[in-house]
């Protein structure tokens, strides 16, 4: 029996889902990891391959060279490109690593989509706070400031004045070097330092959606459109729904087309992507994020399976292996919602309480806790701490009321990190 190697950067809920999907394809599973003390993970797989640095493609490839891997894959955002490089060196790559390297630079994505004739916000790199006025004139205000290789809404800021733009630069320059995510401490291939150079994008005005896209044999297939009717002032997602409230079939088709056009323009093949789209009042659907090489995060794969019958994790594994598409079921005949609950402050998690009370609510289908004791939670980024899948609601007000009720029931005990 051949082995699939899953590369792990940090602990993640996705690992167990991928292990189950790989075993469902009939393969052994070993995890490639830096030294760890995780007996539960070790017991859940067929073996561990310990390497000093999972971000070093040459070292990881050398550790696996004599093991004849069927595939080497990951869903850890920060190492998708380096893991694809490992797969290339071992002759089991399905999508070129250079494509993933490109998609990890949001400004490069903006340039590539513009060259393909696809709409996008005005964008500029922001490397010097003294140039705030020039950047504001180039991009326009209001604008969004974010890390150029960021994820999970890390330190995303909306600014309306030149002074706010300058202050956003100072904030990101102070906080990103302290961020535990290793991606912000690695210079990008073009020499860009993500701790000192940030992305500024013109503001888009319209509802936000997500589309997971599967690319098989050169054909891009959108799974479904997921609406995001509740987003807070930090750009953190509080609730999603599939299908979206009140979305006409024509608009849904346009949103799906924007997502698939972007994925194909970037050169993605034999892989998947999680795409974020804003349906701008003037420009129509505009792609704002392309998270290439992985399906949606958190419990969103469960949302999609409930709503459509499509298991995007199993689809991602199949694409990485080059095996036939997995069997698909039927989705529920009613809208499915997804509530995200966050810790109210930063700190090291001691315990989460109240999830059983949330599970007893009549609309709740499942409660999935992503975080674990000992994990440091930060209010700088979206950490989907507790995820609640729901059905039986009528509209966005019902969904908001459910989120409020669940938030009151769940309690995070934190200590200073």
UniProtKB/TrEMBL annotation:
ATP-grasp domain sequence ranges? 110-321
Q: Which residues form a coiled coil?
A: none
A GO molecular function term, named singly, is: metal ion binding
Q: Does the keyword Ligase apply?
A: yes
Is the Disulfide bond keyword given for this protein? no
Q: Which UniProt keywords apply?
A: ATP-binding, Ligase, Nucleotide-binding
Q: Which superkingdom is the protein from? A: Bacteria
Could you tell me which Gene3D superfamilies the record lists for this protein? Answer: ATP-grasp fold, B domain (3.30.470.20)
Question: In its UniProt entry, what is this protein called?
Answer: ATP-grasp domain-containing protein
Recorded source organism is Amycolatopsis iheyensis
């Amino acid at each position: 029996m051949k082995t699939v190697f899953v590369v792990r950067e940090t602990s993640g809920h996705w690992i167990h889902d991928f292990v189950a999907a790989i075993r469902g394809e009939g393969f052994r599973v070993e995890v490639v990891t830096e030294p760890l003390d995780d007996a539960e993970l070790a017991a859940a797989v067929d073996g561990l391959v310990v390497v000093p640095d999972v971000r070093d493609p040459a070292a990881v490839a050398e550790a696996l060279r004599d093991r004849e891997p069927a595939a080497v894959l990951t869903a850890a955002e920060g190492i998708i490109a380096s893991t694809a490089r490992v797969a290339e060196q071992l002759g089991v790559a399905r999508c070129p690593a250079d494509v993933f390297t490109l998609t990890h630079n949001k400004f490069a994505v903006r340039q590539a989509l513009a060259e393909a004739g696809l709409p996008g916000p005005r964008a500029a790199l922001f490397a010097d706070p003294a140039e705030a006025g020039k950047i504001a004139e180039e991009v326009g205000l209001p604008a969004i400031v974010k890390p150029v290789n960021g994820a999970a809404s890390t330190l995303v800021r909306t600014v309306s004045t030149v002074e706010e733009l300058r202050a956003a630069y100072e904030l990101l320059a102070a906080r990103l070097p302290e961020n535990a995510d290793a991606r912000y401490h690695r210079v990008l291939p073009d020499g860009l330092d993500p701790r000192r150079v940030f992305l500024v994008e013109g503001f888009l005005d319209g509802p936000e959606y997500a589309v997971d896209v599967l690319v098989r044999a050169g054909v891009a297939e959108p799974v479904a459109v997921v609406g995001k009717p509740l987003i807070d002032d930090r750009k953190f997602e509080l609730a999603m729904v599939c299908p979206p409230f009140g979305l006409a079939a024509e608009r849904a088709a346009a949103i799906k087309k924007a997502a698939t056009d972007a994925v194909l323009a970037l050169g993605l093949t034999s892989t998947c992507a999680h795409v974020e789209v804003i349906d701008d009042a003037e420009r129509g659907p505009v792609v704002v994020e392309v998270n290439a090489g992985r399906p949606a995060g958190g419990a969103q794969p469960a949302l999609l399976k409930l709503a459509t019958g499509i298991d995007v994790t199993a689809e991602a594994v199949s694409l990485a292996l080059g095996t036939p598409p997995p069997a698909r079921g039927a989705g529920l005949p009613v809208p499915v919602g997804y509530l995200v609950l966050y810790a109210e402050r930063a700190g090291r998690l001691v315990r989460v309480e109240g999830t059983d009370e949330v599970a007893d609510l009549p609309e709740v289908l499942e409660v999935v806790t992503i975080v674990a004791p000992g994990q440091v939670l930060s209010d700088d980024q979206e950490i989907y701490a507790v995820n609640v899948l729901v059905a039986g609601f009528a509209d966005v007000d019902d969904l908001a009321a459910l989120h409020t009720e669940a938030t009151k029931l769940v309690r995070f005990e934190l200590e200073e990190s």
